[in-house]
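re: ur question from earlier - yeah i can do the single chain one, its not a big deal. heres the input i used so u can compare w yours
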Amino acid sequence: MINPAHLDLQSLRLFLVVAQSGSFTKAAERTHMTLSALSRRVADLEKTTDCALFVRLPRGLELTPAGVGLVGHARAVLDSVNRLAGDMSDFAIGVRGHVRVWANTSAIIQFMPRDLGVFLHAQPLIRVSLEERMSGEVIAAVAGGQADIGVFADNVAAGALEKFEYRRDRLVVLVPPDHPLAARAEVAFADALAFDFVGLNQGSSLLQRLADAAAALERVLKLRVQVSSFDAICRMIEAGLGIGVLPEGAVRAEILGAGLRAIRLADPWASRTLWLGVKSAATLQPEARKLFDHLLAPR
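and the output i got, formated as tokens:
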């Protein structure tokens, strides 16, 4: 059985460099070590884990199944150590707390920049880390303790989280200037379904909302292209690859200035609520509570 005390961080770092380089020689050059010293550290790590981590090939190295597994664990360990070092450095220079926030794309693009800017201007000794994730991932992170506060869409089940209304937004249909719908001020989703769509990747709450709305109409959502960001959707629409549905606040002024049209979506479900979720508002740490109260303050 492996004794965790025999694992050292430097050996894990060197192992990752070798794994990324695919060669002891290249890794030795990158780490400014002699080839023999680096090889010895990896051999010691293989002895400690009682596993062969690499297959030595004539033209390089290949990870064994054990080596592939160790890559994931080593990265997780080193990421945790780096976060620990960052947190301790913050405390050393006077930072009083760290709040972890996960939010979906709609919240980050439309609302979080201004809200966090105002908060951090008033609370310079609090550090906030913000991660952009899909709504389902946000909920899981708050429930699992990876995040203190989450912001997510209203069509994703919040589970046991306490949720509070953060903001409301409105969906629009974005089309090229020469599109058949471009002259309309408002459009029903049923009419938009006649055309090809550019959408977000699978797992996004917005894509799920559109798919559910199409299914309710007994129609098919014709996804021609799927991308990972609102900005990419806009670029694909500019290129004439389809139309898209976006939050109104996510459509940048320069996009409209370039000629694209944002048309109000008439369906009731196009008005959305973004929820702010926590495991328990009553037990939030003081710094997280300050941010929580700020985000829920009337505007």
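The chain is about 45% helix and 25% strand. not sure if urs matches, ping me
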